[in-house]
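Fold it.
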Amino acid sequence: MITIRTVKTSPELEVLRTRWEGWQNHPNSDFAHFLLVCRLRREVLSPYVLIAERDGLPCAMLAARLELARLVPSIGYFKLARIPAKVLTVVYQGLLGQADEEIGKALVRHMWFLLASGEADAVAFHHLPERSTLHQSLVAHGPRWWCEKKPTWSTHRRMSLPEEPGFLLKKMRVKHRYRIRKKQKELDSAFPARVSWRWMSRFEDIPGLCARLETVAARTYQRGLGAGFVDNEEYRQRFALFANRGQLRVQLMEIDGEVRAFWTGTIYKGVFHASDTGYDPDLGVYQPGTLIFIRMVDELAREGVRKLDFGLGDASYKQRFGEQSFQEAPFRIFAPTAKGLALRSILGATIVLDGAARRLVQGAGGLDWLKTRWRRRLASAGSQKN
């Protein structure tokens, strides 16, 4: 028999630490990282971890946070008014342990009971892989009318890393390899003897590093979208957490000793999880994103890392290099209340409009063009502010 109990305090979580750490397999659902986020984010009311027990013994858990959130409907890059709501946020890769169909069903029914009781306005799953235990349980046992009907699917990509550095250039077509080497020569010619590439695996000054990355991140299109790296307490402590374990990696491109491009990530359970990246938009003509990616992959190969996870979201370079992929999407369940009905209606309508707009632009062959133009506009706006 499956029973579900809830853990909401840090002392209770400490009792689970050994079991949790034995099950964790992703930086996002790492025990120490989970506690860090709960402690630092002002919107978090409390941890909210569901423990599934079979015959009184814990066999799985679902890591979540109860938050005073502001849901933001969006159509493409256009964000509409923020809607305040109390949300149970399930972290990415937050289902830990030996979760089977029976446990998935019990977890979904428990969350529906939580919503029906009025303790939350919605449950938000931060990207569920298609055909995962939670996804299948939501489809089979979730309240049909109160679940999002048309989730926005995206492709999550990974790539294998051979043992030898330089493999990425070797597997490219001749014209692509020529173009990349040409961009490298143009960069070196524009800044003779001034460009350096630095791979960081040991860190003595995390605040100093974050300050240096911020000078670039503040000028990127990601900042215009409210995403990407930002020099704040959460990033500093997250970097320190993984750096102290020897898991943090940072690739830098410097000109005259100043950071002009970067890529960060974490090696976790033998997989490099790519995280934040950015480059000075003034250098866009040299394709610094591609140049820094190639160097980062070579460094990982030298370290013996055999798998790279590109993280959330898709992009042309991920499509080019990621030979493994799966579909995932954010999901929400709404409370059977007036507030839940309003949230479901507003968010559902914007998802439909967003999908229709994407299909229209894609059909005209202009989706990539529109993304590029919009990102350049955001980056330009960031540069003007600085």
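The two ends are 60 Å apart (CA to CA).
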